[in-house]
Amino acid sequence: MKEDYMKNRVREELLGEHRSYAENTPEATEDMLDCSLGINPYGYPDVVEDVIRNFDVERLYQYPHSTEAREAVVEYWKDYAFIEPENVVLTDGSVTALTLLVNVLSRPEAEVVCFMPTFTDMVEYARTMGMKVHGVNTLEEDNYRENVDRLVDAITENTSLVYIDNPNNPTGQSLTLDEMRNVLEKCEKLGVYCLIDEAYADFLPREESAVTLGPDYTCMISVRTFSKGFGLAGARAGYIITNKKLVSYIAKVSNPYMMNEISRALTAAVLKYRTQPEEHGMDFAIIKGALRDACGDRIIMAETDDRVPICLLRHVDDSVDLQRLLLDRGIVTCSGAEFEPLGKNSVRLRVPTLRDAGTLVETFKRLRDE
Question: Domain 20-44+278-369 in CATH: superfamily?
Answer without folding.
Answer: Aspartate Aminotransferase, domain 1 (3.90.1150.10)
